[in-house]
Amino acid sequence: MAKQYETVIGLEVHVELATATKIFCGCSTKFGGAPNTHTCPVCTGMPGSLPVLNKQVVEYALALGLAANCEVNQNCKFDRKNYFYPDNPQNYQISQLYLPICHDGFLEIQTNAGTKKIRIHEMHMEEDAGKLIHDEWEDCSLVDYNRSGVPLVEIVSEPDMRNAEEVIAYLEKLRMICQYLGVSDCKLQEGSMRADVNLSVREVGTETFGTRTEMKNLNSFKAIARAIEGERERQIELIEEGKAVQQETRRWDDNKEYSYAMRSKEDAKDYRYFPDPDLPPVFISDEWIKRIKDSQPELQEAKSARYEKEYGLSAYDASLLTQSKHLADLFEETVKESQNPKKTANWFIGETLRLLKDRAMEAEELRFTPKHLADLILMAEKGEVNNQNAKKVFEKIFDEDVEPKAYVETNGLKTVEDTGMLESVVDKVLADNPKTVEEYHSGKTKVLGFLVGQVMKQMKGKANPASVNKMLMEKL
């Protein structure tokens, strides 16, 4: 009988914090910018320059730790992690090994298998390194220190995940919490959220872990899922062939769907960690923790529960509307304007989410004015524009944020309420389709839909379908 294997996965997630300035200096953290323009002696590691801790970094890390049910190290400190790499200007990175700011937390995730608790080993603050740009043409490498010193929180999970679905659910939950708290935008494509996957396989039923590998260069959830599948298969193949899995760091190439070895994995002792002599320990008082706790915004679970209670929405609809803070904020603004939560929810779930999917957009990219959608909902309710045309108008609001009333007028989409004109069109359609009328009278009532369609066609979609239906029934 073939052996059954279990995948064991733990994640190291780096989240870039949304502070205006870097962790130990006053340089801008803005993404983009010409190379080496957001730099100073501190973040380029000049001798004699001294780091000064950005208080906002501590506040963001605390907020995230509390939201992830972590314990807080009220006395935490920074350490130097020593390694030489061209994008690391000081030849050490300021991080936290011995006393990280937060530890022993958890996140609850939902998958098809139900609810699962993923434990968080620790969270620590650290600085980012610069970026190497390899120039193929000139056959040289250039370094950009704009990113050097950008504040990060590294979230290290326990090896509690067993498949790609759980990994993605955990990352999505983490990203959602960061966005709700406003501590990071978590854009994977810009590198403000990066996940390294530690993965090993073992026979089902065994307690001991297999040899793990760490995979880097994962910049989308799809790439992470593909990398997990690819690495799982590679390790099983090695074991089946009687070969040993090497503990190493591997780089995932998403185009080739293949990972290759970068370096054998170092241990903490290889980094020669020691307390940073330039930075005093950080004392976090009970009052400080209380203040952060009290200022935490309403997170997704609480918001979802409120939508059920306050707006009478189903649990499923409420969870869809709160999956992104930006989407939830837009929805609430639109409800204020429309005073119709149920109808507004239908427009968001039916049309907004459909268009986001069609356009391959993130909810954070939505830019339409809530009042414009609310006005359209009211127009559709009053029958001033029929449902089919309302959807066309919403597409314009979604793409260009047009003012619906003006757009409907200009493009002649207003419903025609002229009953005399409607009656003459209904009479003509009935006269032109005697066979269909006969079928209707012989009991085939389904043909009514065809007749409604013919009238709508003649009216260029400007009639109210309910009025057309009513008039046809009366005539028939």
UniProtKB/TrEMBL annotation:
Residues 329-476 form the Asn/Gln amidotransferase domain. Its EC number is 6.3.5.-. Keywords: ATP-binding, Ligase, Nucleotide-binding, Protein biosynthesis. It catalyses: L-glutamyl-tRNA(Gln) + L-glutamine + ATP + H2O = L-glutaminyl-tRNA(Gln) + L-glutamate + ADP + phosphate + H(+); L-aspartyl-tRNA(Asn) + L-glutamine + ATP + H2O = L-asparaginyl-tRNA(Asn) + L-glutamate + ADP + phosphate + 2 H(+). InterPro entries: Asn/Gln-tRNA_amidoTrfase_suB/E, Asn/Gln-tRNA_Trfase_suB/E_cat, Asn/Gln_amidotransferase, Asn/Gln_tRNA_amidoTrase-B-like, GatB, GatB_C_1, GatB_Yqey_C_2, Gln-tRNA_amidoTrfase_suB_CS. SMART domains: GatB_Yqey. It comes from the Bacteria. PROSITE patterns: GATB (PS01234). Heterotrimer of A, B and C subunits. NCBIfam families: gatB (TIGR00133), PRK05477.1-2 (NF004012), PRK05477.1-4 (NF004014). Belongs to the GatB/GatE family. GatB subfamily. Allows the formation of correctly charged Asn-tRNA(Asn) or Gln-tRNA(Gln) through the transamidation of misacylated Asp-tRNA(Asn) or Glu-tRNA(Gln) in organisms which lack either or both of asparaginyl-tRNA or glutaminyl-tRNA synthetases. The reaction takes place in the presence of glutamine and ATP through an activated phospho-Asp-tRNA(Asn) or phospho-Glu-tRNA(Gln). This is Aspartyl/glutamyl-tRNA(Asn/Gln) amidotransferase subunit B. It comes from Blautia stercoris.
